Structure formats: C-alpha cells, structure tokens
Amino acid sequence: MDYLSEAIKQSLWLIIHFDHELATIVWTSLRVSLTSTALASIVGVPLGFIIAVGRFKGKHHVEVALNTSMALPTVVVGLTVYSFISRRGPLGAYGLLFTPTAMVIGQFILATPIIVALSVSATKAIDARVGETARTLGANAVQTAAAILNEARYAILVAIVAGFGRVIAEVGSAMILGGNIAGYTRTMTTAIALETGKGEFSLAIALGIILLLIALSVNAVVQSFRLRGS
Amino acid sequence: MRQLKVLLMGFLMLLLSTTAAAEERIRLATTTSTDNSGLLAVVLPPFEQKYDMKVDVIAVGTGKALKLGENGDVDVVLVHSRADEDAFVEKGFGVNRRDVMYNDFIVVGPASDPAGIKGSADASAALKLIAANEAPFVSRGDNSGTHQKEKELWEAAGIKPQGQWHVEAGQGMGAVLQMADEKRGYTLVDRGTWLAYSDKLELAVLLEGDPRLFNPYGIIAVNPVLHPHVKYMQAMLLIAWFTSPEGQRLIGDFKIGGQSLFIPVAVPTDTPKK
Which listed residue, of A11, A73, B131, B188, carries a Cα 20 to 30 Å from A90's Cα? Predict the structure, then answer.
C-alpha cells in the first residue's frame, strides 16, 4: 500500500503547487468542454423550446430519438467524426483531426441531445397559461418565447450543466479525435488513461481529484438551481 | 434570465480565447516506445526552441502510425518495423527514410520463471516453452512494431499462439508491461521502454541476445506529392534534426541507470581519420 499513499501525497503536492503540466491539462479540458457546451447550448436550448411548443407530425418520434441519443456511446461519436475529418474523409481538407477543434465537434455532438431533451422537458413543465397570458397582454411570438424561457430558466441551466457534466468526464471521443497530444489536446480524462497505463499514479490521481471536484461543484450548482427553481 | 446572460458571456469570452496563437506545428506519429520511454521529451524540446516550431506527438503503435501517414493525417513518422517501413516507402506513402537508432527486444517475465526460459538465447525455443507450459503471455495485439516482431517469432517457432494464456492487450508498451506484471506473465518488450519502467515492475529480463531481436528505428517523411497539404519542409527539418550529430548525441546520451536506451546510427560517432 506504500506506493498508493506515496502517489496520493505526490498528487496533493502537484495540486497545491499548481504544477504547470497539470494546469495545462486542466485548462485544455475546461476550454474544450466549455466551448462545446456553449455551442451546444446556443443550438440546443432554442431547438428544445421549438420542439416543446411546436405542433408537428412525428413529434413523439423526435422525442424518442432525442432521449436515445442522450446515451450515444462516446467512442462511436469519436469514430464517426474521425472518419469525416481524417485527410481521407469528406472534410479532410480542413485538417481538423488531432486538434482541440476536433474534440469540440465530438463533444458538441455528445452534449447537444442532452441539452435539447432537457430543454424540451423544462419548457413543457411551464404552465401553458404563461404563454397565453403573455399573448393576451399583446406580446408577439419572440416576447412570448422569452416569457416562457424566463419561467424555465433554472431548469434550462440544469440542462446546460448536465451537458457540460457529460463532456468534461468523457474520454472516448477526446482520445480518438484529439490524439492525446501533450500540451495541446491532452485533457484530464485522456491524461488519466495514459498515466495509469504508464504506472504513474500521482498525476493521474491529482487529475482524478480535480475532475471529481469539478463534478461536485457542477452538481452543487445544479442542486442550488433546482432548489431556487422549485 | 440574468444568470443565463452571464453564463453566455463567459462562454463567448472563452470561445474567443481559443482562436488565439497560431504558431507553426508539425505532427509526428510515433510508436509508444519512443514516447513512453521519455526519449522524445529529451530530443524534441531543443528542436522546438531552435526552429520555433511545436511538434505534436501522436504516440500509437507502428501500424497505426504508418496508417496515419498513409492517410496524410501526420507529416512525419518515427517507427520500428523495417518490413512495414519499406512497404510504406515502396507504395509511395513516404519518402526519404533514414535510419535513426536501434536497440533490442528482450523477453521479460516473473523472476520465478514458471516456463523455465531463463538462460536460453534462442527466442523461438523460449516461446515454445512458454506455449508448452501455457504460461501467460501478454501480446501487444495492436499491429505495433513490437507486435509484428512477436508474430515473426511465433511463426519462427511454428506455433499459432491461442488460448487463455495468450492475452491480447491492444494497448501501448507501458500498459502491456503493467499488465504482464499484474498477471505474472511474460511479454516481449523493447529495451528502451523496459529500462524506463523496470524500477516500477517486479518482472525480470529472462531472454536477450538472439540476433532476431534486433530493433532498428527509422524516420520517414509523408509523401508531399500524394498529400500536398503536409508540412514537408518542416518534416525534413525534423528528420535532419534526428539524424544530425546534435540530435544523435542527445539520443546516445539518454540513459536510465547508466544504460543507454537507444544506440544512434545515423552519423558515424568517430571523426574520420585523415
């Protein structure tokens, strides 16, 4: 058990001294995941709203498809995007493989269904009378939408945070699309996989602790929004 | 609504910060042995500093590295599987192959040596013993240079390795060593990675010195005619660096516990007599 306590001690040292390599990895992770979550939110929240309030054929099927794609396997997303952006693929000319942009694309695909699906239920949970009241008071379509979204704001924040929680913790697509390049596309999860394979536990444990702390604070934020929302 | 706005603003600022800094980068696909052993961490930084260029290292097996080169996803490859390298150049995927360095493969296993291979210098005979005793053997199983060598040796021994005892890991050299250690099994490993890992493992060197275990490394530029987008000049600069007296000295001086991990071969070490 000696090596384990030694590794934990070293990992704490790395965190406290804000080790450069560790900081770079954490920063890369946050940058990629926050960017992909932001893009997924810009697309996902309005889309979820439209699906929720809209009346169209096959709405039920769309919702089933959405709920299914919330569980997309990360490696399958990685594989699919890889085959598109490799130099031999249809989007090869852009040279995106093994860049942070490639990881953002993969994580965008992972986060969007979650944000859309949770935005749908967030919007649906709002009393239909909110929209009706807004309209009676003379609001146009955009103002009505704003009124409904305003009522649903906490639940929508929860949706965005859930999307972020999914991508910050995923390793499959980040590994395949980023290539785990030191100082460039090495994220917390890919670094943990690599360091464990190398038997270097201290950096892996330090990253694991930080990842858990991020997950914890993300969930604390969600919880506090839930409480305020209800 | 205010919280949402603040959140969005923060996201946007992050987005902007990601588009900054466009320095020169080239991509090197290489085997896990050069990266896991720590060699690249010694050889690359002086190059990056001198030529103001970042080298993005993608450490995979030789098979995958060559595939990345073939598809034009990297600019240069540093690998160790001579037959595959020659085929790569012959098919026109790569140009200007240069020898860089060599070391040798060894067979490591539990010090208790349940298959009794210690003392032998014949790799095929040792593998036959491992198979006959059904002692665990961890294979790379990833088409890497080491995996190619495994297959070559099994073939020479006239054995098709299969069964519970033959574990196909599908992972890098470091991970496979860890696995062999945990499973108290045997594995084939390049000396460089072994020296970098040996103090963390309970495994011991049980077989070395068979001439078939020679392990040469070559560096190849991806063919710029086939893939016009590759950074050919920069790739050639990196090849020049690896094979320059300075690069070769860095390789030769890279030691762990007083032992060289790789022996440079690109330039003669003695100055020629006049």
Answer: A73
